[in-house]
Amino acid sequence: MSRGTKEKQQNKGITLIALVITIIVLLILAGISIATLTGENGILKKASTAKESTKQEEGREIIKLAIEEMRIEKAEKGEKLSLEYIGQHLHEKLKIEKEKVTTIGEPIEYIEVIYGDYIYRIDGNYQIEVSSNDNRPEVEIIILDQEANCKKVRIQVKATIKKGQITAIESMNGLTIVSETEIADKIFETTKNGKYQFKITDSTGKETIVSTQITNIQESVNSLLKGIEKVTTEGEQEIILSEEVNYKVNVILHKGDLILDGNQEVKGATLTNKAYEFGKVNDVATENEYAKNTVVLKVEGNLTIQEGVTVTAVKSKEGYGGPKGLVIYCTGTLNNYGTISMTARGAKAPGQDIYLWENLDGSYETVPAIGAEGGGGIINGYRDNWQMAKGKKGENGTNRKTGGGGSGAAYHGDGSGYATSLRGGNGTSYSGGTGSGAINENCYEGPTYARAGSDEGGARWSW
Hints:
Elements: H1 3-38, H2 43-76, H3 83-94, E1 101-104, E2 110-115, E3 118-122, E4 128-132, E5 138-143, E6 153-160, E7 166-171, E8 176-182, E9 185-190, E10 194-202, E11 207-214, H4 224-230, E12 235-240, E13 246-255, E14 258-260, E15 269-272, E16 275-278, E17 294-300, E18 303-305, E19 310-313, E20 326-330, E21 334-336, E22 339-340, E23 354-358, E24 364-367, E25 378-381, E26 387-389, E27 410-412, E28 418-421, E29 439-441, E30 447-450
Parallel strand pairs: 13-17, 14-18, 16-19, 17-20, 18-21, 19-22, 27-29, 28-30
Antiparallel strand pairs: 1-2, 2-3, 3-4, 5-6, 6-9, 7-10, 8-9, 10-11, 12-13, 15-16, 23-24, 25-28, 26-27
Helix pairs in contact: 2-3
């Protein structure tokens, strides 16, 4: 082999080795670059983390500004900001659904806000912590008893999660579990209205708080006014004092101030000649049925009755009286410059003791079921020919008793019989006593009677 040929082979070998080394170096550099870009502490990861931190801080600052705005609003009124106020109004400031703001604890310990992709927790010092909303459980709360005025409600809580498992669902209000088909599906039961919170725990130990509000339970109370105080819905319902005592009411609910000026129509009333008649025809009696309800006008605010205006209840067009009373309940100030009247609105219905409210000493202010006695009957006989015997007035009402009805007059003409009017009716808690009928007769044989007044009220219940 010549010398020149040997040198060419050596140069070729060196070139291949150099190429391999170059490739290896490039691969190492590429690996380092990829790790730098995509590794746990890589550039892309850091950029993503920085972006996430920026979004979290943006959300935190927006919430801080909303809280500060509410603080200024309260300060202008000379009041202090509270977690309760924030919990009520933060969704309005952030323009998000109300359900995304949850107050935790009674009294409130902290507030959770779902804003964007993150969960923000606001503590009692208005400090804000943030965590990811990733893999947050999806929770469905179902109220199984939807009817109004029920005595108990069952609450079904179902939770699912994308990663891992739900390990526990617990009531933060101490409710009893009445059914448990699986860990992530439980049914609780309650007999009281209020806010109920549930803690959902997943397999990582992360806890999520959800809540619901129960308002449709009819709780037993100790008086009519206490029951009206708790009423939150309109329409016909019962106020329950005990198994034996309950009051059927038709509630007309006005939220905010109400002005009765005699010109403007208002919900729940018929307006005629500046007189507002509250209630509906179903509340009053018919020929064959007693009056059904007490009409309740509940105003959550101030009520003003202007001069020349009359407030009363609906009445039967056939003359069977009104409802079982009219109650005006005002949470603010009642300014009455007009007239509140129940004249000719006595209800045709059996009386019952009405426990209005409880006094501090444990006694009750009560309208008794039976009122004052009616006036005695009148007998006008043949010795009193061509004479009119006047009826006797009933007893006056005292101590919230309604007055008794008077007996009718008796006129006897010619003959040997007797013209007799029977007694007036006793008062009831829902009506003054009805008067007995008057009699105008020529009695040639035996006595003739006018009908007695009824002890069950109502203008036309007896003649």
